[in-house]
Amino acid sequence: MTDPVLSAEKVSRSFGPIQVLFDIDFDLCPGEVHALIGENGAGKSTMMKILGGYLDPTGGGLRMDGKPVSFADHRQAEAAGVIMIHQEFNLALQLTVEQNMFLGRELTRGPFLDHAAMQAESRRLLEALNCPLDPRLRISEISVPNRQMVEIARAMGRNAKVLIMDEPTAVLTGRETEILLDQIDRLRANGTAILYTSHKLDEIARIADRITVLRDGHLVAHASAADMTPDQMAEAMVGRELSDLFPEKNVAQTETVLEVENLTVPGHVRNASFTLRRGEVLGVAGLVGAGRTELMEGVVGLRNATGTVRVMGKPLPGGSVLAAREAGLVYLTEDRKDKGLLLGKSLRENLTLLALDKFTKVRIDKAAEDRALTKAFTDFDIRAGDREMHAGNLSGGNQQKLLLAKTMLADPDIVIIDEPTRGIDIGTKQQIYQFISRLAAEGKSVIVVSSELTEVMGLANRVMVMGRGYIAGELEGDAITENAILQLAMKKQDEEAVPA
Amino acid sequence: MVATRGIDALVVLPFESEPLTSPVQAVAEQGIWVTVVDRGLTVEGIEDLYVAGDNSGFGQLAGEYFVENLDEGDNIVVFRGIPTTIDNERVDAFTAALDGSGINILDMQHGNWNRDDSFTVMQDFLSRFDDIDAVWASDDDMAIGVLAAIEQADRQDEMWVVGGAGMKEIIGRIRDGDPQLPANVSYPPAQISTAIELTALGLVSDTPVSGRFIIGSQLITPENAEQFYFEDSPF
Amino acid sequence: MTDATTTTPPRRMRLNLNVLGPLLAMVALIIIGATLNLSFLSAENLTNVAARSAFIGIIAVGMTFVITAGGIDLSVGAMAAFVAGVMIMVMNSLVPVMGAGVPLVLVGMAVALVVGIAAGLLNGVLISKVGIEAFIVTLGTMGIYRSLVTWLADGGTLSLDFALRGVYRPVYYDGILGLSWPIIVFAIVAIIGELAMRHTAFGRHCAAIGANEQVATYSAVKVARVRMATYAVLGMLVGLATIMYVPRLGSASGNTGVLWELEAIAAVIIGGTVLKGGFGRVWGTVVGVLILSLIGNILNLASIVSPYLNGAIQGVIVILAVVLQRERWSTTWKTWSPRAGSTRWSFFPSKASL
Q1: Contact B127 C44 (CB under 8 A)
Q2: Which of A486, C25, C117, C255: CA 20 to 30 A from B22?
Q3: Minimal Cα–Cα distance from C106 to chain B, Å?
Q4: Domain of residue B145, CATH code
Q5: How large is the ipTM?
Q6: Which domains are assigned to chain A?
Q7: C185 backbone φψ class: left, alpha, beta (φ>0; ψ -120 to 50)
């Protein structure tokens, strides 16, 4: 193996009195993908930030090409060819793709910007990623997976020697992930050193050459990827053997609790009809852009829609989230950071926001809110260092649990959960799956929208597959297979164009 | 901009002299008659006609009234307007008139020709000074604020107030012999109409009307107040 | 679960310092004032300062809600002048019908409240229903109200009927227990405002909308309605402030309420409310208003600085307050990304290794 281009020696890091990394050795070699895995809070992010120049180690040090190096900030690291792609995008929403890709290193001709050259270069980099986006679009106008592609294209445009990728596929669909992994293969062949993190362990098995596992800030395993199965990775991460990820499925009752008839969400979904029974878990699968989220937002009144939605037989007035909530129907967004939680507000305020009227006569009963928070901590196993901390300071998994707790406080009969486990670790995933199963057992009904097929297959009694803008078909019981879902999702898409 | 409308004469009261000088100069250079009212331009000789109130006389008349009606050692406070040339001319002339009289000016603050500001400043003067014999409010809007503050502190018998500009309400009270308001200083507010009349005259006749016309300030007392009271004025 | 309830002392202390900031500034000003001039601490002077704070103060309490919900209202000064103008004209015109008595004063008060609410609702509808930027809408209505009052007054001053002034005068100058009515009304408005901000769903919803409108929408908050309500409440408070203002001098003109909007906004920000929205505190606004009034009062009482520089001193204080505020946000919430180890994640009982 070649010599490492960037290596960390006995790196430690503390925040105040709390140590989060303990003497970690880690290196990145040219032409190699080194996966760094661990549960949320294991210290992956801190490790990546130290390598990328965002944080200083409090112990140990870095070497670049064998020589000791200390990055003053991430700009210096980038100048040295070490580029980190963040999970939270670093893109200016109101600027175009091209402007973002060249932000801070604009090409000029004389005193003027050379738009033609920048556009051509942007196009080239994006096409290399199989992502034929118009560079003149604003970031706010493009989808989340495309934003991820722009981030990656931008890093490639900067001729990275070392690329640090923080969960790049968390928001991508299976096909998009495949394109990205192919691209990483190409980068590896060109001699780039790549640090890769993901919660999707089969992805790790597919792409990584070497694997390092962190747990609670300690390096607990280091092996060649060929020597580690996904199950072994998971066990190393959580420190014990994982029992079956998905709980036993319940049997749905016969009573229909939700009927959606001919729902059309202009520009996204046309004439969708489906029903949901008491105690049922309905999985909704489909490619990104199929209109799954838009359909569900239309159902609960977050989007303008025509058609009928009946809850327990009673029609719901359109356009009112409050009316849906009062009828017992709630929607849990896929975008917990922008639409789900107030990151700069306390846990308590977040918890009760949806069901605030239950805590209010004229005054808000803060004692009751506090009791609700204590109960949520127990019921949903939310781990917070401090009751008064802001929701933004929670780890992703705990944020998701807080969002669940917030939603359940409204005491709904029907819960629509969009991407229940996006970007959270396997231990928390298991808890959330158990929670969904328990809801169904208690006689509530759940719709799970997910891009992870295993999740849909593992949880749902019935799976509804969406093509581009409408329901392509349903599968029940033993008919739910990966192959059947994919066939439904792809078939319709090729036959018909985007709905009006 | 104005000149494109094809006018023959311009009557202008520059709120601030400096910024308006060159545009007005441009108008004058097209051969259009220019009359400037009250505030002079910074370059001399642009205008055909200058009509102005006598601001120095305004301050001087008030100052002389204070000297006549107060004794050596008496205390007064002074309200200034918005910081401008006019205000400076008035206040300089006022303090010059007081020179050597032995009257103490306790403090001067800006009431900004505004009732609310003057009310506040007078409240603070009343808290700060136990002995005030008279107030030069220099403007009737400020005088109204000052009077309200004095009334609130119940010190009406202790001091009188001289305003300025001949506001209807104040002139009415002088005419009726209000002991708190013994006098006022004004130059006729009809300055602009005078200026327009003179301008029109300059355009239609051969009478030489160009030059400077300074309208003298006058002291208004209960004796002559009636002739300064204009029922229909909004001021 | 025990570690979930433990608190981290350093963060607490930082917060406390921030909470105390405006209060410390006010105490410092009071000490400076008392040192410079003994009459500063007289009951007369302190009531004067409190009473003159009342107009801006009542408006600033309403402004706190508007800003907390992510909005702004530049029209309040002009609106106050307009409300005062309409109120005076209506009252004057009704003197021959109703006579100059208490009933007519009550009618005038009702007119002020109704006109204020209507003006606020107009802003609110244009902003939350039509969807125009708050800055632009209220910049527009500011111009409209300012022109209207100048027009109503024919460029001069609208004065309240002399007989009515006598009846109405006590509303500004009298009071109970040595406190004049403006102070009492300001105090009541401030207390209700503080309760509403901290202890009602309305206050919580304002903060949620200002922090992240989308989250509020997804959490079943009626965003448009709450936003409209903040402007309507502000309009009503402008009406209330006008009710206290008119009896002071009994007049209104094109100069009434000039720059009140900026003073109110400055007071809100000095008090610790975030200009971008998402966090507001009414008691801070009250302190902010008092700080601004105290600066003017001290400068009048002491005349140590050229009066030309009064504005500069106020400006420095406003900027200092905002700098402090920025410090706070950068220390408490922007550092969340490295997930400081206080939320150490040990999900399952961990063995030492595999």
Answers
A1: yes
A2: C255
A3: 23
A4: 3.40.50.2300
A5: 0.76
A6: 6-238 (3.40.50.300), 256-495 (3.40.50.300)
A7: alpha
